[in-house]
Amino acid sequence: MKKSVICVLGGTGFVGHRLLARLANQGHHLRVPTRYREDHRDLLVHPNLELRQCDIHRQETLDSLFEGCDSVINLVGILNEKGHDGSGFRQVHTELSRKVVDSCLQNQVPRLVYLSALNADDEQGASHYLRSKGEAERIIRRSARELAATILQPSVIFGAGDSFTNRFASLLRLLPVFPLAAPRARMAPVYVEDVVGVIMRCLDDQALNGKTLQLCGPQVFSLREIVQLIAKSMQCKRLVVGLPDSLSSLQATLLEYWPGKPFSRDNYRSLKVHSLCSEDGFARTGISPHHFSRLIPGWLGPATTRDKRDVARRAAGR
Ligand SMILES: NC(=O)c1ccc[n+]([C@@H]2O[C@H](COP(=O)([O-])OP(=O)(O)OC[C@H]3O[C@@H](n4cnc5c(N)ncnc54)[C@H](OP(=O)(O)O)[C@@H]3O)[C@@H](O)[C@H]2O)c1
């Protein structure tokens, strides 16, 4: 891959961290905006990375970030908004995408990659999250003649440091009986390094221009099976109680008003549609996706013998 100038919006997040590590290793010059520069100083280990504190919702900020860029990768996304009426999702997904496309065209950026989500649909989307992602996709597709863009639609993404498996793991540690909303929701968890691999391919494979790729891992699970697998990997015996629709909806309503909004009615509506692929986006890239069940013990498993020895040494004051 030739060395390029690449702006990664949302580069400070879970997927962004992994992507930036891979891009930085290849010697690309990276521009990464953030709202909270101090929180992401760890990224400055990459000598070829500019971390800029700025407001990417301003068109002039995007213009300055995209000037001279060979590619823009947009990973910005939220799972929950501050309010409850969908305007937060529209601002971060739909309106930001409109500005990103305008600025790419204005600055003659030749390449855009957008990380959307499976089931994104501007008209039929089950939730504000999925509709606003669908609206973002529509805006990008409308500019297809002038801008080479690839849209990626992953199922749920997992990997060390994700919020998906780690949030369930934290709750499982606390609760002997686990009341699980939407236990029958089905999904095909996809490994973060595989998603990153596809983004890297998009940057230098012109055959992927104008394509939408669905990205699923090779295993399909219900949410209940996933939580049970997480508990098993942690070697923690827990009773997982699947809630019926009425109680799932009640749990979503209560947690929507809980500090930090750990779950919401919008999340629940997204879970009502199975997050499964109807076609294999990986097949176009030559990447074989990894198995969820094989990898999760890597970060959720019990402490290794070496960890235990370290704890014992510290306890003994050595
Ligand atoms: N993780 C998954 O399971 C999954 C599944 C399907 C699709 N996706 C999509 O994949 C993308 C990346 O996911 P991720 O898990 O890496 O997300 P993440 O860890 O939550 O990171 C989100 C990023 O978006 C930025 N951001 C959030 N709200 C913003 C706002 N209001 N204005 C400007 N920037 C904002 C954050 O930047 P700062 O805080 O530094 O400003 C952060 O870098 C998202 O678009 C997500 O919807 C993720």
Specify the structural class.
Answer: alpha/beta
Question: Based on the structure given, which CATH architecture of one domain is correct?
Answer: 3-Layer(aba) Sandwich
The CATH homologous superfamily of one domain is named NAD(P)-binding Rossmann-like Domain
Distance between the termini: 48 Å
What are the bound molecules? NADP nicotinamide-adenine-dinucleotide phosphate
Strand content range: 15-25%
* Total of DSSP H or I helical runs spanning 4+ residues: 12
Backbone CA Rg: 20 Å
In what order do the strands lie side by side in the largest sheet? 3-2-1-4-5-6-11
In CATH, what is the class of one domain? Alpha Beta
Mean pLDDT equals 95
The string of secondary-structure elements, in order, is: EHEEHEHEHEEHEEEHEEHEHHHHH
Question: Are there runs of 5+ residues with pLDDT below 50, and where?
Answer: none
Overall shape: it is globular
Query: Helical residue percent?
Result: 40-55%
Number of strand segments: 13
Folded structure, characterized:
Helix content is 40%, strand content 16%. It has 318 residues and is of the alpha/beta class. β5 (111-115), α4 (128-142) and β6 (148-154) form a beta-alpha-beta unit. The mean pLDDT is 95. NADP nicotinamide-adenine-dinucleotide phosphate (NAP) is lined by residues 10, 12-16, 34-36, 40, 56, 75-78, 92, 115, 117, 154, 156-157, 164.
Defining traits:
318 residues; alpha/beta; seven-stranded parallel beta sheet; two-stranded parallel ribbon; 12 helices; globular
